[in-house]
Amino acid sequence: MGQVLHGSATTTEAIRRAIQHSQESLRSLAKRYGINPKTIAKWKARPTVTDKKTGPKAPRSTVLSVEEEAVIVAFRRYTLLPLDDCLYALQPTIPHLTRSSLHRCLQRHGIARLPDVEGDKPVRRKFKAYPIGFFHIDIAEVRTEQGKLHMFVAIDRTSKFAFVELHETATTATSRDFLLRLIAAVPYKIHTVLTDNGIQFTTPGGGGSAVPLIKESIAKGERFRAHAFELACARHDIDHRTTKPKHPWTNGQVERMNRTLKDATVKRFYYESHDQLRQLRWSPFPGQFGGWNKLGSGSCYAANLIRSSVPS
User: Which residues fall within 8 angstroms of residue 43, CB to CB, at 6 or more apart?
Assistant: First the structure.
């Protein structure tokens, strides 16, 4: 680790240590190291080789008197007002008080930060626990030198099983096929999917998912028209939920996964073509999704592996 010496230092810690262990005279040591004999005597008398702290031993204000500091400390402790409010309240009593001198005074006495008040901050709530099989699904854009690709991402809320495909289009049929391949790849039952209100996943202006209505029509044998993605959900008995408009944080798990994938690929490396990006597969092991290791070319859709598929 590097040494931190004051600006006027003429010796290093190694020289100081050599001076303390030397049996030579002050004059010979001063001549050898090219410094004043008084400096040699000073370091011989010290038990350490580090610089002493500069400045006053007992910090005090050059602007405020002891009585004025006592008034400030008492006012802060009894009122618990913020810094600016304390300044405006105390300036009529202490006209020469400035914001910086007030802040330094509070820091010296250890009351610069107000104590946390119960109910002052919103209560952090944990994610609701769901059984395995609850998937968050989203679409993100990635770019290579060739152009734009749509990255379909699905991640299980509980097991963190991740499934990704790259497509040149983002249509309802593409979303449906992605869901069907996800169902085939997952080794357990998918009971719920959560998506946004994009046209790839639901009918715009429909007021939420129409999967319950589709199931009812199928049970009655009625003819109907339905969104391709929602029809696939209904046929596989999957509950389709949508987020509130302008509430992307509701689908935060997959949003974070999108960022992780981009950071590991297009934001870190340059890709000349879509095929060059598709030929890579990535594994989040060892550890969680933090460490990414290149495994080689080809496609893979096993547990916790990221799949790059051919364009549909």
Answer: 11, 16, 19, 20, 49
